[in-house]
Design a protein that fits this description.
Helix content: 55-70%
Distance between the termini: 38 Å
Largest sheet: none
Radius of gyration: 18 Å
Number of helices: 4
Strand content: under 5%
Oligomer: single chain
Order of helices and strands: HHHH
Length: about 90
Amino acid sequence: MLTAHPAILRDLVEQYETLRILHAEEGTPASRQRLEDVSYTLCVSTGTRRIEDALAVAHRQLAAAPRVTDASHRIDDAAPAAGTDVRLTA
């Protein structure tokens, strides 16, 4: 089974829910297209073909994934030690 990164899944589910509401309110071709695009991406990300299945898989995967509540842990873990000479190159 395909497993997308939890942050990506969470973002896609949030986008889907927001766009579903937007399309229900506006009903424009543009809102429909945006909803279809994120629905497709969510299906691809979960290895499914129907949005209902994609949402169910996404919710199961998100429920099982550890959730980082403090972003500073990720930043601190990736940051160079104090006094380290860091140079950015193009």
